[in-house]
Design a protein that fits this description.
globular, 5-stranded mixed β-sheet, 137 residues
């Protein structure tokens, strides 16, 4: 295993294939092109490859001045628990710390302990809008 880390944006197909491992595509309902556009619109992207295959990625959405949202951290199940996610998280955080950005993230309850290891703490309740196609007003 020869893991190579990169700041270059992965292809849409590679992102789609990785997200497929977690069922994220079923929830997000985005094409490979749309997923690529989300990466291109991000403030910073870090990815991990094994032999040219995308095996992990994460990104930061930010205004570049005050707030940074860490999102989309994913490592292929075959590569988990090998420090790859931690290395990606470290790279995302270092970029934010260098700009003195206030970092935030949303995660599911089972992942709280993972992010606490990086110095994050629970501070608010998150909410998401139900995309039912109906305006709330």
């Amino acid at each position: 295993m020869n893991i190579v880390y990169s700041d270059e944006i992965p292809s849409g197909e590679a992102i789609y294939d990785l997200y497929e491992q977690f069922g994220w595509n079923e929830f997000l309902k985005l094409s490979a092109r749309q997923l690529h556009d989300t990466m291109r619109g991000s403030w910073y992207v870090a990815s991990a490859y094994d032999g040219g295959r995308l095996i992990g990625t994460g990104r930061v959405v930010s205004d570049g001045v005050m707030t940074a949202f860490v999102c989309g951290l994913a490592v292929h199940p075959d590569y988990q628990k090998k420090g790859i996610g931690s290395e990606l998280m470290k790279r995302l955080m270092q970029r934010c710390i260098a700009r003195q950005l206030h970092m935030e993230l949303f995660c599911s309850d089972p992942n709280i302990g993972y992010y606490e290891r990086f110095g994050f703490e629970v501070f608010a309740s998150g909410m998401k809008y139900r995309k039912e196609g109906q305006s709330p007003w």
